[in-house]
Structures are given as structure tokens and as C-alpha cells.
């Protein structure tokens, strides 16, 4: 594993367990935690292979698994992966750093739902995008949700994605497809790896 992620360096002791319990309570209270997964589900064929990158305690990957997809979830935090394994059996959950990820398999889609790029080690964003692009099949999609106040501008994301060989296909202001505008406080970005005949 490379440098400590900002999830480790920028959060207080016990933050991971607090995060786990927060989402367990939200689920118990009946909160809708499946919006990101529904979005991704519309982009892929039934039974697709999906990588949940920065999966946390597994809420997105679990919904995708429930919809019939073959899911692998990856997170650098073993506390979060342990919670995913306990709460959401079915997907494969892996402790790994996204900046040097090498699962040895390719996916139809990759999703980074929860401001993941804001928590990778500072300066590794281009490496993370490249590693995720390398895990995509030709014509696969990478879907990224990121607050616009998180220090990684959409223009920089677009440049780093282009360097990783990915093409910007869509951008929305919310997971429920509100139109993108420059003043939006959140960006849902859909990037596609060109099909082999287009490469």
C-alpha cells in the first residue's frame, strides 16, 4: 500500500466505526441508500461485473449485487471492509489502495460514489484514475460522484481522465439526473473507456 489516504490522515480516531454505524442507523431508519446503485444499474447490462471503488461499508455494492450484478468492492480501510463483509454477504470485499490496485480482472463498470477522490492520498488522483481505467473493459464506464468543494476541480478531473484514456460522456449535478451547471455543489461524472474499434 502507498502513502496513507486522507481518510486516515484527515479524520479523527474512531471515524471509520462512526461511519459504519451512521449508515447502519440510516438503513435501519429506512433511508434510501440505493440511488447511486440505481444510476449505475441503468448504464450496464444485467449480470454485469461492477467494481465498487472506495466501497466503504458496502451499501452501493450491496444494492448492485441485489440487482444481479457481480460485484467486487475495494477500500483501503479494513474497518469498513469488515463491516461490508458482515452486513452485506455476497459481493467480494477487498482491502486495497486504489492508487496501486491490481485485481487481475476487468469490469463493465466502476463506481466511486462517496466523494472517494477527496479521500485518496493527496496527489494520487491521476494514479487512481489510471488504475481504474486499466480495470475497465473496452466500452466500460467509470462513474464518479464528488462534491465540487472538495479541492479537486472538475476541470482537473477531466484532464486526468483524458490522460488515463477515458472520455467524458455525461455530467449531472445530482444522482437523480438534475442538469449540470457551473454553480452546482456536486458532480456526477460518467467517463467511458473507448471500445477497441474506437481506440
Map the helices and strands.
Elements: H1 6-9, H2 15-28, H3 35-41, E1 49-53, H4 59-66, E2 70-75, H5 78-87, E3 92-95, E4 107-112, H6 125-134, E5 136-147, H7 154-163, E6 167-172, E7 186-192
Parallel strand pairs: 1-2, 1-4, 2-3, 4-5
Antiparallel strand pairs: 5-7, 6-7
Largest sheet: 7 strands, mixed
Fourth-tier CATH superfamily name: Vaccinia Virus protein VP39
Share of residues in helices: 25-40%
Give, in order, the helices and strands.
Answer: HHHEHEHEEHEHEE
Poorly predicted runs are: none
CATH topology: Rossmann fold
User: Roughly what is the average pLDDT, rounded to an integer?
Assistant: 92
Shape: globular
Overall CATH class: Alpha Beta
How large a portion of the residues is in β-strands, by DSSP E?
15-25%
Q: Tell me the structural class.
A: alpha/beta
- What topology, given as strand order, has the largest sheet? 3-2-1-4-5-7-6
N→C terminal distance: 31 Å
Count of separate DSSP helical elements? 7
Q: What is the rounded Rg?
A: 16 Å
| Total number of distinct structural domains | 1
Number of strands: 7
Which second-level CATH architecture applies? 3-Layer(aba) Sandwich
Amino acid at each position: 500500500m502507498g502513502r496513507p489516504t486522507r481518510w486516515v490522515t484527515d479524520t479523527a480516531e474512531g471515524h471509520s466505526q462512526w461511519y459504519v454505524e451512521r449508515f447502519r442507523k440510516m438503513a435501519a431508519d429506512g433511508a434510501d441508500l440505493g440511488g447511486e446503485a440505481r444510476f449505475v444499474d441503468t448504464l450496464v447490462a444485467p449480470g454485469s461485473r461492477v467494481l465498487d471503488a472506495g466501497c466503504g461499508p458496502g451499501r452501493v455494492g450491496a444494492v448492485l449485487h441485489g440487482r444481479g450484478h457481480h460485484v467486487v468492492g475495494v477500500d483501503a480501510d479494513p474497518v469498513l471492509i469488515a463491516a461490508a463483509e458482515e452486513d452485506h454477504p455476497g459481493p467480494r470485499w477487498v482491502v486495497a489502495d486504489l492508487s496501486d490496485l491490481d485485481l487481475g480482472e476487468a469490469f463493465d463498470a466502476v463506481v466511486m460514489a462517496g466523494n472517494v477522490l477527496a479521500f485518496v492520498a493527496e496527489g494520487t488522483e491521476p494514479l487512481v484514475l489510471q488504475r481504474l481505467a486499466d480495470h475497465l473493459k473496452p466500452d466500460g464506464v467509470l462513474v464518479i460522484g464528488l462534491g465540487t468543494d472538495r479541492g479537486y476541480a472538475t476541470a482537473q478531473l477531466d484532464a486526468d481522465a483524458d490522460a488515463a484514456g477515458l472520455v467524458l460522456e455525461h455530467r449531472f449535478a445530482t444522482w437523480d439526473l438534475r442538469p449540470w451547471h457551473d454553480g452546482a455543489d456536486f458532480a456526477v461524472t460518467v467517463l467511458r473507456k473507448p471500445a477497441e474499434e474506437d481506440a
